[in-house]
Amino acid sequence: MILIPEGEFTLGVFPDEKLIQFMSDMTLSLNAQPAQKVYMNDFFIDRNEVTYEAFRRFKPKLEYTVKDPLEPIRGVNWYEADAYCLWLNKRLPTEIEWEKAARGTDDRLFVWGWEFDKDKASFGKQVKSTGHSSDDTSPYGIQDMNGNVSEWTSSWYQPYPDSTYKDKLFGKNVKVLRGGSYHKTEHGFMKEFTILPYRNFAPPKERFWDTGFRCAKSSV
After folding, report:
1. How many angstroms separate the first and last alpha carbons of the chain?
2. Which of the 8 DSSP states describes residue 119?
């Protein structure tokens, strides 16, 4: 695990000219506005996504066809991810913890900076082993936060403070997913969905073959 130091960072996105040029009308991330400074206590987060090999120690009867046991576990629902973290006396990260660990403190949109580069993370048709891309490393040294698999967080999908955006799913209906992922086909891939502030969501009982998780832990 890596310690993320206490302090402020920018949560969310600014609806400025640069971002609007970058994003389409359909993907303005209105649910991630307004951008705001958030102070956080320090916390620990896993350097890597939980692998198939590690998860199988928790659930020995698990049988998935994988090319490499160091691939991130996927196809597990939120309850299974949460149970695994608790088994290790850890927990799932909140979505705000996840975003700080990925973005650092300089408002970047990707772990490597502000411009999309499809070659710097696993956005292709095949999942990679954890830590496969050295470019997909956050300012704190956390790996695979931009690509490979999306990740469950502990957070319910709620509006940000001072947000005017309305969504019927706000509340305790769906859990927030963070991070871009590999895609089995090119159809439907949009770089806008890979920016670090992007908020996706899903029912906690559902399983997805492009979604895994990592664990976190409070420092005290």
Report:
1. 14
2. G
Question: What's the CATH number where 138 sits?
Answer: 3.90.1580.10
With a cut of 70, which residues of the chain have pLDDT below it?
A: 16-28, 184-189
Strand partners, 10: 37
Task: Give the distance, in angstroms, between the CA of residue 76 and the centroid of all CA atoms in the same chain.
Answer: 15
Question: What phi, psi does 40 have (nearest 5°)?
Answer: -130, 145
Show the domain range for 15.
2-218
The answer to whether residues 43 and 205 touch, using CB atoms and an 8 Å cutoff, is: no
Residues 197-219: pLDDT tens digits?
999 999 999 999 889 999 999 98
Q: What is the pLDDT of residue 54?
A: 95
- Take residue 204 and report the two structure tokens written for it: 């906690």
Given a contact cutoff of 8 angstroms between Cβ atoms, the answer to whether 219 and 160 are in contact is no
Contact 153, 174 (CB under 8 A): no
Tokens standing for 190? 């949009």
pLDDT tens-digit map of 92-106: 999 999 999 999 999
Count how many domains the chain has. 1
DSSP state of 126: S
Residue pair 58/79 in contact (Cβ under 8 Å)? The answer is no
